[in-house]
Every structure is written in C-alpha cells, then in structure tokens.
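User: tokens in, sequence out, please.
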C-alpha cells in the first residue's frame, strides 16, 4: 500500500498520527466550554496526551484523552450537568 492510499491518520511507517483527531477535539471542547480560553483547552489536551504518552495500546486513546480533558475542564470551570463527558456530540 502506498503512502497516498493510507488513511490520513497513518504515517508512512504505520505509526498513528494523532494530531488531526486532537485538533478536532480542541475544536469540540472549545465549543462545549465557551468560557474556556483556547490556549487553556489546548494545554489541557496536551496534558491528557502526556498522561498516555507511554500507552502501548493506542486504539482507545482519542476517547480516553477526551474524557480526561473534559474531566479537567469540568474541575477547573465548575462544569455541571450538560458539561460532562456525556455531553459530547
């Protein structure tokens, strides 16, 4: 399979490129937490990614990163019902 035929989230060596889903996550979180600064949301997502940096099984990382990010934003912003992890699209 050539590089052009691969999914845009898979690099040439077969490694998963997590950047596009993370950029989409930041956009979703900014929409879900309008009072949060974009830089703060990005920092929370980076922190969540760092937490899972050495994870061997990477298939579930996007949802785990999102849940950890939402939990951190809820803690900082005092989110209540409608702002939790289950409030996503």
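Assistant: Sequence out:
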């Amino acid at each position: 399979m050539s590089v052009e035929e691969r999914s845009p989230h898979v690099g040439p060596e077969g490694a998963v490129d997590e950047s596009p889903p993370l950029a989409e996550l930041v956009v979703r979180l900014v929409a879900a937490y309008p009072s949060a600064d974009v830089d703060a949301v990005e920092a929370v997502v980076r922190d969540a990614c760092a937490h899972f940096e050495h994870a061997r099984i990477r298939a579930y990382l996007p949802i785990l990163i999102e849940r950890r990010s939402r939990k951190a934003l809820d803690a900082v912003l005092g989110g209540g019902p409608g702002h939790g992890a289950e409030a996503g699209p």
